[in-house]
């Protein structure tokens, strides 16, 4: 892909190339049978699509040939186009958790760590996993990272890590891992640390990969046990004790990236539902001419545009240099709820066909339902926002 200039023209070129690739090359793969036990595409399929994306010049399109990263506003436009198929982000290498891990490594990683771990990820040759979340019923960290029970201790020139992790997306089959643990002693005691590790490692055991409502991510969402994992000290990401800060560097853009990708999928689901409504006859006229159906599709357009504007607003805040924790919470809630309404209406418009795998509409519904939980449930973000309202009120009273 030949890029000319910068700014809007460059972004439009990249986005157009990604959209053309997804529509012409990726969508035909949606019925490919190479899937695992819960329907996620196998790495063989992913790498085949990535080979084609590489040849088309659209692999990892949000990271430029010189190593620079598109702005978040530019990334939003490109990632929305990649999401036009559930397979699209995998094919062009904009999928979670890799996209978020690449962003974090680009921001925090040393030149040596970037060369060893980031480069093969940008090249689309390996998958990665982010080991933060822990089993809820064991009292571990979930939406509240401060509850982290996985520990790390310095032993000579190695850190030794022990703990349990849950819902680790893509752990099975990943080649790069970012492991988060709480320092058990030393100057950073109580603070979190992040480590880069080569996978697989015998000290990281996959205990279980459950079947989940979503099925777009290779490797599923594993529960793992980490037992005496020894990591060289120079594979720490950033500084000891700063892991919670680095988590925010990753999580705010990652929430937004989810919004971007699934906005694209809901746009496609809406296209499929609108096509169905314009073809299907019932009670003497096309479904689109029945107000009950036509109005649902009209509401989809409204929600799609509002979600797009929310995404661009939050992206502009992140581009300003802010961590954007408040804005990303607001956007994650508003967009995930809007996309859920869109996906639900698409199923409803298509009736019986909408709940079958004849089209991707039912998968988009499942994926977006999971998105309302992933990267922080709606209720956790609302609770966080309510606490901010309380803090702001108290500050105003004491002013």
UniProtKB/TrEMBL annotation:
BP terms from Gene Ontology: fatty acid beta-oxidation using acyl-CoA dehydrogenase
Domain Acyl-CoA dehydrogenase/oxidase N-terminal: 9-124
Keywords from the UniProt entry: FAD, Flavoprotein, Oxidoreductase
Boundaries of every Acyl-CoA dehydrogenase/oxidase C-terminal domain copy: 241-388
GO terms, molecular function: acyl-CoA dehydrogenase activity; flavin adenine dinucleotide binding
Coiled-coil boundaries: none
Gene Ontology cellular component annotations, sorted alphabetically: cytoplasm
Occurrences of domain Acyl-CoA oxidase/dehydrogenase middle (ranges): 129-209
Cofactor(s) this protein cannot do without: FAD
Top-rank taxon, per record: Bacteria
One Pfam family per UniProt: Acyl-CoA_dh_M
Family designation: Belongs to the acyl-CoA dehydrogenase family.
PANTHER family: ACYL-COA DEHYDROGENASE FAMILY MEMBER 11 (PTHR48083:SF13), MEDIUM-CHAIN SPECIFIC ACYL-COA DEHYDROGENASE, MITOCHONDRIAL-RELATED (PTHR48083)
Quaternary structure (record): Homodimer.
Protein name per the record: Acyl-CoA dehydrogenase
Species, as recorded: Sphingomonas lacunae
């Amino acid at each position: 892909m030949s890029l000319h200039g910068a700014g809007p023209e460059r972004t439009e070129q990249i986005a157009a190339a990604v959209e053309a690739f997804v529509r012409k090359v990726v969508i035909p793969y949606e019925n490919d049978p190479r899937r695992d036990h819960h329907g996620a595409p196998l790495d063989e399929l992913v790498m085949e699509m990535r080979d084609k994306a590489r040849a088309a010049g659209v692999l990892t399109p949000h990271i430029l040939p010189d190593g620079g990263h598109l702005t978040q506003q530019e990334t939003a436009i490109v990632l929305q186009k990649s999401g036009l198929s559930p397979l699209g982000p995998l094919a062009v290498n904009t999928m979670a958790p890799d996209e978020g891990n690449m962003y974090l490594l680009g921001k925090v990683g040393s030149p040596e760590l970037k060369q060893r771990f980031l480069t093969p990820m940008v090249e689309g040759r390996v998958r990665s996993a982010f080991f933060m979340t822990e089993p809820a019923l064991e009292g571990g960290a979930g939406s509240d990272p401060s509850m982290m029970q996985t520990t790390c201790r310095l032993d000579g020139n190695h850190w030794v890590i022990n703990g349990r992790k849950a819902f680790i997306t893509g752990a099975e089959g990943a080649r790069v891992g970012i492991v988060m643990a709480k320092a058990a002693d030393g100057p950073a005691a109580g603070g979190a640390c992040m480590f880069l590790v080569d996978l697989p490692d015998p000290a990281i055991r996959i205990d279980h990969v459950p079947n989940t409502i979503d099925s777009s991510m290779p490797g599923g969402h594993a529960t793992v046990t980490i037992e005496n994992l020894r990591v060289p000290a120079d594979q720490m990401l950033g500084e000891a004790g700063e892991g919670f800060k680095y988590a925010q560097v990753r999580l705010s853009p990652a929430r937004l990236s989810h919004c971007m990708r699934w906005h694209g999928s809901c746009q496609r689901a809406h296209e499929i539902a609108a096509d169905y409504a314009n073809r299907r006859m019932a009670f003497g006229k096309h479904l689109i001419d029945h107000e009950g159906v036509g109005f649902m599709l009209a509401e989809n357009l409204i929600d799609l545009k509002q979600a797009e504007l929310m995404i661009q607003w939050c992206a502009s805040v992140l581009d300003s240099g802010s961590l954007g924790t408040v804005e990303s919470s607001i956007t994650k809630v508003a967009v995930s709820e809007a996309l859920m309404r869109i996906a639900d209406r698409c199923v409803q418009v298509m009736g019986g066909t909408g709940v079958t795998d004849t089209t991707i509409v039912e998968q988009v519904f499942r994926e977006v339902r999971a998105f309302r939980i992933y990267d922080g449930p709606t209720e956790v973000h609302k609770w966080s926002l309510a606490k901010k309202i309380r803090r702001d009120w108290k500050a105003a009273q004491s002013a």
